[in-house]
């Protein structure tokens, strides 16, 4: 009996164990089946969290720009010229960087775990097998061997750190294009030779002077043990090239508000536009310096010649490509009736301009430089073919994109001072950099001004030279070139130093522009007189290259690419008559003998000394003969204007 009970108990126990085992296996199978689902849920949550953080970062920069705009309006309303909007954007960026680094605490992602594997090179992407599923990871950049404990919120700081190519390929092209497109000024041609000398010869001189001075500082720092890594002579030359890119946007804005002397404004504007192109190409040429020996930084004449060839090839290729795209756009707008559809015309204009950048990058030359020359060509030829509505749209949209891109870059500069986690601040290198840029700027301005004055009837005065020396600010271009590559110790030190130089020059030099103008007795005014006071320029008084260019442009390029100028049948040989008829404009010429050409013909007389405000009326709109009055603009007095206007009209009537 007892034996039967024990057998029954044993059987029941076996049944319970069997049910427990079956239940356990069922749970395992369910967990195994739900594994991929759980992985998908985790991935989806991560994607949603990343999207939320990206939206918050975009909102952050939008609020920064909004605050900058409102503060700029406040400064302009109260006529405060102590700080430009770029300086305000940098201040707001600094404040936001402090808040993100020290005021916001984000829980780190505990799932992230470093894995170690050895490769001979850095793969662009990796495929990882995790629980039987393949996941692709792309290369983001080099990370430090140990996590940085002195940088709180490192994950969110990485989020607000953008890819450097975003600045160089997306934000810089609108700025450079606007600089070229807004260069359509009559007084630019008057100082063309001086502008080209400062922009090309002066930038090269400044680059090498800065490089040599910094090489001396680096050698001294290495001797006393103040360097934490390699810093070669080519690195010094590269630093000299990128820091020679001037961006006096603050000074030019103040010049515009104060209506300073037109020659001074033209010299600074032209130099700042063109020397960006030289700085980009020169830095690329220095990077291309590759000696054949074991040391990649040794001196070798053949490698120098190769770098020189790269410099000339990239610069000339960018110039030809940008100019050719402008010519094509001018022909398309001339030979078609797109002007009847302003929206299509404006869209085609910007698409052709943007394609210049893409084509240049595809051809392995610098797209930013090509966009600059494209903008200059578009302003000189294509703009005259556009309808009145398209002209207004292109100018306003170009100015808007330039303002947004520039404000964003300067805001990001302030933010980067705290968000970038690999800064290398060396007091000796920073001090030497400030001394080097002053010496480089002086070697650019004073010797070239002395040589240029030997052939100029309208001499560049010493006060003008001092103001040009003072106005050599650094800005968006120097920042973009320095942040593009921060992989080595030398490049990280260059980037940190460039950031401080931009801060100092924008805040100190930009804020001190008005006192310097008063100290140097530079003539300016506070009223918006807006007088159309220009005189016809006699080409026999111009330099012979300008005369040759004017004749070629007047007789061939203008008639070929625009609706103005004499008919091509009168300029081309008789055998080219069919080609001339094919390329003839569909519109009648308004003036055959004296076509309207505000870029080449209406240039300031050498004997005149006008203010910037005297040229604010565009010759494309002769009816706008009265200044636009706003609530912040005081009404000008009319008595002194009448005799000048009468004398000008009498002079023009006698000439005609």
Automatic annotation (TrEMBL):
GO MF terms held by the record: potassium:proton antiporter activity; sodium:proton antiporter activity
GO biological process: regulation of intracellular pH; sodium ion import across plasma membrane
Gene3D superfamilies assigned: 6.10.140.1330
Annotated stretches, region: Disordered: 618-656
Signal peptide (from-to): 1-33
Domain called Cation/H+ exchanger transmembrane: residue spans: 68-518
Pfam families listed in its UniProt record: Na_H_Exchanger (PF00999)
Localization in the cell: Cell membrane; Recycling endosome membrane
CC per GO annotation: plasma membrane; recycling endosome membrane
Keyword Cell cycle: no
Keywords for the protein's UniProt record, in alphabetical order: Antiport, Cell membrane, Endosome, Ion transport, Membrane, Signal, Sodium, Sodium transport, Transmembrane, Transmembrane helix, Transport
Biased composition (Polar residues): 635-650
Membrane topology annotation: Multi-pass membrane protein
InterPro entries (UniProt xref): Cation/H_exchanger_CPA1, Cation/H_exchanger_TM, NaH_exchanger, NHE-6/7/9
TM stretches of this protein: 57-75, 87-104, 166-183, 195-217, 237-255, 303-329, 403-422, 428-452, 489-510
Main location: membrane
Family affiliation: Belongs to the monovalent cation:proton antiporter 1 (CPA1) transporter (TC 2.A.36) family.
Protein name: Sodium/hydrogen exchanger
Lineage of source species: Eukaryota, Metazoa, Chordata, Craniata, Vertebrata
